[in-house]
Task: inverse folding
C-alpha cells in the first residue's frame, strides 16, 4: 500500500515536496490554510495532485504516515501542536529532499546574516569550477523540486533556521554557519538559546568525513561551539588571527588552508566589497577548496561575482547624492554591517515590523555616521526612543516614495541615502524584495 504523505503549505517548498512525493509514488495530499498562489495551484492541478485551500481537513491530515511542514508554519500553530501530541512524524522539505538526493554532495549554508550572498558566491564558484550543481533552498527553487525535476551532483542549499527545525537525517558534506545574531525571536519563544540551537542543527548529523566552516570572530558561535560540536571537522574563518587550518585575512590578503592545500588572494580583488563580504568570501572560498575546485577557478569566480539585488545595491547618484538599496537587511545586525561600511554622511531609512529588535548596539555607529533618520513603518516608536537623543533630524513616512523624498530633502551633495531597515517589511510591503523595488522606483522618479 502507498505511504500517505500530507504537505502543509503550498508555497515553493510545499509544491516542490509534492512533486517529489508524487514521483516517489506516495499518496500525496496538499493542505494550505490560506488561498494558494495561482501558479502553484495550476501546477498541482496539472500534475493531478490532490489539494485543498483555505481550510485544513483534520481527518485527511491526521491519517498521514508523514507530514512535510512549510517553514512558514510556527510551532505554536494549533494544528501542529495537535499533530505533535498525536506523535505524527513531521519533517521539513529539506529533510524530505535529502532522502532522495542519491550520491550527490551538499554544501549547506545558514546564519543570521550573509547566507544569501555566501550561497550565491559558493554556487558561482562551483559553476565556474565546472561542477554539475544547483542553488536551492531558501533561494530560488526548493531542494525537493530540484531533486524531482533536475537532479545534480552538487546542491548548494541556503537554509533558514525554520527549515532546520524539522530535520532528522539531513546532513551536508560541507556546512557553513556565517554568524548568529538575535533574529526571528518571535518564533523561538523570545529565547535566544532556542534560536542558537536551531542554527547548530546544521551540523547535528555530520560525521568525521564532513566539514563545518564557522566564523571564529563571532562571539555567539564560539561561545556555543563546544556544546554542539560533534565528530565533524571544524574549520574556522577569522580576521583577527592566523590559522593553521581554515581561512583568515591579514594585511588585506586572504589565506585559505585545507589539509595540504594553500591559496592566497588579495582582498582588493574581491568583487563584493565591505568587511561582512570578506567573511562571506572566506567561507565560500574555503568551501570551494574543500570541494577540490582548482585555485585559479576560485580566484576568477571571486573576481567576477556580481552582488545581489537588495543587498548593498547601488541604485543611482542624483545631484551628488548616492542611493543604496539594502532592503534585505531585516535585522539590526545586517544594518550594523551596512552602516559600518559607510564612508560618507548618511541618511538612514529604517523601520518596519520589529521582530524583538535591540537597537542599542547601533547607537555608536548612528552617532558617528548618521545625520538623519527616515522611519518607514506603521509603528516607529522604538526607533524614536532609541535614537531621538542622538539624531536631530527624524521623520515618519508610510511609503517608499515619501521616505525617498524626505531623505533626498535632508541630503546634501556627497551624502548617502541608505535603505537598511533592520526590520521585516510586512506592515507596508509584500516582502523585502517589494520594499527594495519600490525604493528603487521612487529614486528613479526623483
Result:
Amino acid at each position: 500500500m502507498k505511504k500517505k504523505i500530507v504537505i502543509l503549505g503550498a508555497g515553493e517548498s510545499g509544491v516542490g515536496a509534492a512533486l517529489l512525493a508524487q514521483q516517489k509514488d506516495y499518496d500525496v495530499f496538499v493542505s494550505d490554510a490560506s488561498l494558494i498562489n495561482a501558479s502553484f495551484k495550476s501546477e498541482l492541478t496539472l500534475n493531478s495532485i490532490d489539494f485543498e485551500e483555505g481550510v485544513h481537513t483534520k481527518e485527511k491530515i491526521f491519517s498521514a504516515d508523514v507530514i512535510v511542514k512549510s517553514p512558514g508554519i510556527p510551532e505554536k500553530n494549533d494544528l501542529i501542536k495537535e499533530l505533535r501530541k498525536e506523535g505524527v512524524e513531521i519533517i521539513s522539505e529539506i529533510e524530505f529532499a535529502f532522502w532522495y538526493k542519491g550520491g550527490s554532495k551538499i554544501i549547506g549554508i545558514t546564519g543570521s546574516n550573509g547566507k544569501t550572498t555566501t550561497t550565491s558566491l559558493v554556487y558561482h564558484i562551483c559553476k565556474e569550477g565546472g561542477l554539475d550543481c544547483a542553488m536551492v533552498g531558501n533561494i530560488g527553487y526548493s531542494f525537493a523540486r530540484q531533486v524531482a525535476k533536475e537532479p545534480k551532483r552538487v546542491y548548494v542549499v541556503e537554509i533558514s533556521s525554520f527549515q532546520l527545525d524539522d530535520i532528522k537525517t539531513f546532513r551536508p558534506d560541507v556546512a557553513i554557519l556565517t554568524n548568529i545574531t538575535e533574529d526571528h525571536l518571535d518564533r523561538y519563544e523570545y529565547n535566544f538559546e532556542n534560536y542558537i540551537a536551531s542554527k547548530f542543527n546544521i551540523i547535528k548529523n555530520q560525521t568525521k568525513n564532513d566539514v563545518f566552516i564557522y566564523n571564529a570572530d563571532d562571539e555567539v558561535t564560539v561561545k556555543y561551539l563546544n556544546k554542539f560540536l560533534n565528530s565533524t571537522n571544524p574549520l574556522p574563518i577569522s580576521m583577527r588571527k592566523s590559522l593553521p587550518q581554515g581561512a583568515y585575512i591579514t594585511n588585506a590578503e586572504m589565506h585559505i588552508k585545507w589539509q595540504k592545500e594553500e591559496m592566497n588572494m588579495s582582498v582588493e580583488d574581491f568583487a563584493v566589497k565591505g568587511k561582512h563580504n570578506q567573511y562571506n568570501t572566506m567561507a565560500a572560498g574555503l568551501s570551494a577548496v574543500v570541494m577540490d575546485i582548482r585555485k585559479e577557478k576560485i580566484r576568477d569566480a571571486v573576481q567576477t561575482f556580481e552582488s545581489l539585488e537588495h543587498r548593498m545595491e547601488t541604485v543611482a547618484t542624483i545631484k551628488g547624492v548616492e542611493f543604496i538599496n539594502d532592503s534585505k537587511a531585516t535585522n539590526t545586525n545586517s544594518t550594523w554591517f551596512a552602516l559600518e561600511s559607510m564612508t560618507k554622511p548618511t541618511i538612514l531609512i529604517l523601520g518596519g515590523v520589529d521582530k524583538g529588535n535591540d537597537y542599542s548596539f547601533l547607537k555608536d555607529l548612528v552617532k558617528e555616521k548618521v545625520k538623519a533618520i527616515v522611519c518607514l513603518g506603521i509603528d516607529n516608536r522604538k526607533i524614536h526612543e532609541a535614537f531621538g537623543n542622538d539624531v536631530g533630524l527624524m521623520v515618519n513616512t508610510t511609503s517608499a516614495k515619501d521616505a525617498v523624498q524626505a531623505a533626498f530633502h535632508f541630503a546634501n551633495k556627497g551624502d548617502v541615502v541608505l535603505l537598511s531597515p533592520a526590520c521585516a517589511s510586512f506592515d507596508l510591503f509584500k516582502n523585502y524584495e517589494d520594499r527594495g523595488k519600490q525604493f528603487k522606483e521612487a529614486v528613479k522618479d526623483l
